[in-house]
UniProtKB/TrEMBL annotation:
Domain of life per record: Bacteria
Domain HTH araC/xylS-type: 9-108
Name of the protein: HTH araC/xylS-type domain-containing protein
Organism: Pseudoalteromonas luteoviolacea S4060-1
Keyword annotations of the record: DNA-binding, Transcription, Transcription regulation
Classification of source organism: Bacteria, Pseudomonadati, Pseudomonadota, Gammaproteobacteria, Alteromonadales
Pfam families named among the record's database cross-references: GyrI-like (PF06445), HTH_18 (PF12833)
Record flagged with keyword Chloroplast: no
GO MF assignments: DNA-binding transcription factor activity; sequence-specific DNA binding
């Protein structure tokens, strides 16, 4: 990867880590060690938009997640966190990006328009992601774990609706991430199957089987056994690349074979509680000798 592209990945991560601060062009130029005379053009070339639009887009993304998944937060607090001086200014900007008012988006999130606006950043992340070393993979013995899951089936772009239902069940059962580990079971790759065939489970660790409920949450188990573990740090935008690294690079070079259980994730800390660049996801690949 070129040094210039590397600089702009660093700029993106710096912006994500400092969304709560005032970010001006002079400050970003100093961070990137680039001339302000060229910074605007280079930003537009790499991000597909001016830097001011990028900052606003990332703030609105976080706001969208907080509206959809953090109902305890007041809309005015989300607006202020996103850098807006008033509810009205936030509503105008949010509606421009999401074609929905913040209150309506909270009731019924629709991420389709967002995904189209976010594509330039997604592509940049995926093109620049680097896997550092095979030594980053560790072998661990995973203990059998009882989990409660909501089974998402169908279009991956509607995953947010399933996440919301699971969070509502979790809240009702007093099982926050701080008290119960969060897992995802990945049954297939959204890039390799049709939208209708996509399958993913959203779950958390529990001590006893799930009772019948209105959220379609059921009981499953992650079996005990050896796993190759790779720690992914950063946005979910490049999570698929880390998963593919385990399958395409690490596994063929190892002496292990796959067990009959899907690859799964443990969400150690996640967006929007932390900046996207600081999110931590442990990827578990079930293996055997």
């Amino acid at each position: 990867m070129s040094r210039i592209k590397e600089k702009f990945i660093e700029v993106l991560e710096y912006i994500e880590a400092n969304l709560d601060r005032d970010l001006d062009i002079h400050q970003l130029c100093q961070f990137a060690h680039l001339s302000k005379f060229h910074f605007h053009r280079q930003c537009s070339a790499y991000f597909g938009m001016p830097v001011a639009s990028l900052v606003r887009l990332l703030r609105l993304k976080r706001a969208g997640y907080q509206l959809a998944f953090r109902h305890e937060m007041k809309i005015i607090d989300i607006a202020l966190n996103a850098g807006f001086d008033s509810h009205e200014a936030f509503s105008r900007a949010f509606k421009k990006h999401f074609c929905s008012s913040p209150s309506n988006f909270r009731k019924s999130p629709d991420w389709n328009l967002w995904h189209r606006k976010y594509d330039p950043i997604l592509l940049l992340r995926q093109k620049s992601k680097r896997i550092e070393s095979v030594s980053a993979v560790e072998i661990t013995s995973f203990e059998e774990t009882l989990i409660a899951v909501h089974q998402h089936r169908g279009d991956p772009r509607k995953l947010g609706m399933s996440i919301k239902r699971f969070i509502d069940w979790r809240r009702e059962n007093n099982l926050p991430p701080s008290a119960s580990k969060t897992f995802n079971l990945l049954y297939n790759d959204p890039n390799l199957v049709s939208a209708d065939e996509y399958q993913l489970d959203i779950g958390c660790a529990i001590e006893s089987p799930v009772k019948e409920n209105a959220f379609d949450v059921v009981t499953k188990r992650i079996p005990a056994g050896d796993c190759a573990v790779f720690r992914h740090i950063g946005s979910d935008d490049t999570l698929g690349l880390s998963v593919n690294y385990l399958y395409a690079t690490w596994l063929p070079e190892s002496t292990y074979q796959l067990r009959d259980f899907p690859i799964f994730l443990e969400r150690v800390c996640f967006f929007p509680e932390v900046a996207e660049c600081d999110a931590i996801t442990d990827i578990y690949l079930p293996i055997t000798k």
